[in-house]
Specification:
It is built from four helices and five strands, in the order E-H-E-H-H-E-E-E-H. By secondary structure, the chain is α+β, with helices and mostly antiparallel strands.
Length: 106
Amino acid sequence: MSKNFVFVTTCVSAKGRHIRNMVDHCKQRDITRETFLQYVDYQSVLAEIEAGCGYSTTNDGGLRMGNDSYVSYSKSVYRGCPCVYFTWSAIEYIFVEDINFYKVTR
């Protein structure tokens, strides 16, 4: 499995019906952070988002997203494309495979 999923949006910027469909989709399931990272590259994609959420991205002793039990990870379908997403502070951060990026941003 390649790590070619890219960030496309959050639920704050998306249409409510798209988020409801993703969360309620029959293929939606919870996954572990380890599985999530099989889809999303940490260094090139996720580190900047984690820092923006206030997490430490170094070994400086600060709270890291990977250690936060209040962050959940899921796999589903967003606007017809397979996706993975994490939920932080009741906000879904959605990632789709790079080849589907154009399809979901139209």
